[in-house]
Amino acid sequence: MTASGPLADPRKQPHDSAGGDDFDIPFDLPADTSAPRPRPGGIAARAAALANPGGPSSPGGAYLDGLNPEQRAAVEATEGPVLVLAGAGTGKTRVLTTRIAHILSLGRAWPSQILAVTFTNKAAREMKERIGAMVGEQVEGMPWLGTFHSIGVRMLRRHAELVGLKSGFTILDTDDQIRLLKQLLQAENIDEKRWPARLLANTIDGWKNRGLSPQQVPAGEGAAFANGRGQKLYTDYQARLKALNAVDFGDLLLESIRLLRENPDVLADYHRRFRYILVDEYQDTNVAQYLWLRLLAQGSHNVCCVGDDDQSIYGWRGAEVDNILRFESDFPGAKVIRLERNYRSTGHILGAAAHLITHNEGRLGKTLFSEGESGEKVTVTGAWDSQEEARAIGEEIEQLQHHSHALSQIAILVRASFQMREFEDRFVTLGLNYRVIGGPRFYERAEIRDALAYLRVIASPTDDLAFERIVNVPKRGLGDAALRQIHEHARAMGLPLVEAARQLVGSEALKPKVRLTLRDLVGAFDRWREQMANMPHHELAEIVLDESGYTEMWQKDRSADAAGRLENLKELVRSMEPFENLVGFLEHISLVMDAEGAGGGDAVNIMTLHSAKGLEFDTVFLPGWEEGVFPNQRALDEQGRAGLEEERRLAYVGITRARRRAKVFFASNRRIHGLWQSSVPSRFLDELSEKDVEVTESRGGSGWGGGQSGRYGYGPSRFDEAQTFGGSSYSTPGWQRAQNAGRGESHSGGGGGRFSDSGFSDNRPSRYAATSAARGRVIEGELIARSSGSPSAFKRGDRVFHQKFGYGEVMTVEGNKLTVQFDKAGEKKVVDSFVQAA
DNA sequence: TAAGGGACTATTTTT
DNA sequence: TAGTCCCTTA
């Protein structure tokens, strides 16, 4: 877990360029450059490039070898706006990095004149590495390669005073943000139950994502929160931030935009500076990011955005697919280059994914193709319940393992993290190595945040939020009452909390005991601050954790995870070493929040579909393809068609992660938040092209079809009967007749059911169904089975028995779907073949 | 002030 | 089911 610590990635010091403007001071060219190098952007350079566009004799031309014609075009179209529509697995990153190498190598710009933006630190790091591999040391001279946010910080630190900040401003994370908002809500006497701080934080974030300042918030929206007080709260919040000399993540962009808009000279500087702008994952940009980019791109117009509208899966946090759809009108004269040659997946995988995504409207349209083999078909497997699903996947993985398949090349991609547990449980039993990717981040852990809060107070005594966090951690008798007093004094005198505390200690206002404790605390902070000057900061951190009693607190804690927390604290201290000083470390922490590291040997990867974007694996398992889970019900309810389309893109992302094998699963029953839900197979299953899909039987499935009923505790069931499972296929005449009998019928799919009525009828015939019999089978090359099979044998009022829900009474009948009022489990929608007459 | 019980609520997540 | 947060009680 610790080999490469999550935080062990020091960056340049944040303030390295804050003082002198390093504009127009070119980074030294590497000594080993072979070709004569014209002055960047000089006429000679342009002429040379025009005369010999990327030809083999162009400087460093070797890196162009091996690009396909489209990729090459994207690399060489350096001038003017370019949109590269790069489908999954078409070499997007390669194009981006090669393009930068190309620009450098032609001498069109110094490294410091290229702005290259990504979304995550990980992506930035990777890009840097890959560029480095091509151009060597030059990459070190690229200060403007980074995330939107880190570049925003860089700009703001240079010009902080222009937007009413001091250069040492702190960056609040979500946690701080929420605590601050809580205070505001309390001050306004707003019921936090009804209007939770988290919701307000989301609302404000949403506004910031759209580039809206408090004054710009549409009146109606501003009024929607807390009976008309949303906008005021936003205004107050911004005022509080300014008072604290702090910004939140949204501000990093919003304030940068303001800076550029209100200061034409600053903007002009950046225009001169950024000769080339490159943007990764353009489909994920939100409005604020778009505005920011557009401002900067007005200088050179050399902006190249790379993205894939089909992989836009962050609409829910403000990403605007529209940005990519509108690129050509936003940047007139834009070249659009499509990368459609897929180098990752086999033909069947690609075919299935491509067919699925055609169900979306509003896309730019790409057709991926590969020249590789068609490989194995995508499999679809039904399981009785989520446990069996996990069991089946576990067994398949063991099979693969026996065939020397590396576990690290296997991924299980789930829609939501509650699905992970089932797999973890199962893999623990099997002794199968796995790792969960995503999870709680290192920096989010309470102990890390506490430790950081101590350090923050030391580094900047005005950091009230940090002080509040740790005044009484560990418990030292400075509870609410004491804190309130400090607060009041601070407000009255206009002081930061630490100062207010210092003054109170010198007065008679506090109870003696409190006063003593507080005096010690303030004294300790003073002492630590002095030590900061003449002691390595990581040693200081250790001292602070010791002397504050924080380490001791966890040592005494006898809960199961206390040891882990102490380990994390050690890791934190270790990770500080490479940094020059405490301030530098804290800056890094506030921006670089991805906790990579933990390579940890050969293990199956379990993660959400979202976090799988950009990754690839030989074998990908996609469990949980059921209506309600995937597509997620809430996405449907809240976003309607747009929500469905985003879910579909997510499915597309999932399938296209697979190089050789994609294996989709659905379960007919799933325990969600402790309650058993029965579910209908996902509509996405029907949207996979039949020629690329094979429906298989659940192999782990003793629950189904293995004839070993009862072994896993469901007791005997009619699904075990040979009639249902006999033979290896369902191509028996009787089965076909049964299926055909149901065709052409429709049933009303609406009606308040849990998985319906979201504006999409689900009464289309489905090739899959949750019925025992209707786990789709291949019949003469066609997958059939319908969720709306023959009319139900049950009628209203019948008493029925269900394996999971127990006894109940049929309330309504729609086709083969029943709404049953169960005696214990409440009202459920179930498919009739899951119940039997009682 | 601090611990323990009851109510409540459950996507996706980066910075 | 399980984790969190708030409120009550000692």
TrEMBL record:
Ranges annotated as biased composition (Polar residues): 725-739
Q: What is its EC number?
A: 5.6.2.4
A Pfam family name for this chain?
UvrD_C
Reaction catalysis annotation: Couples ATP hydrolysis with the unwinding of duplex DNA by translocating in the 3'-5' direction; ATP + H2O = ADP + phosphate + H(+)
| InterPro entries named among the record's database cross-references | DExx_box_DNA_helicase_dom_sf, DNA_helicase_UvrD-like_C, DNA_helicase_UvrD/REP, P-loop_NTPase, UvrD-like_ATP-bd
| Protein purpose | Has both ATPase and helicase activities. Unwinds DNA duplexes with 3' to 5' polarity with respect to the bound strand and initiates unwinding most effectively when a single-stranded region is present. Involved in the post-incision events of nucleotide excision repair and methyl-directed mismatch repair.
Name assigned to this protein? DNA 3'-5' helicase
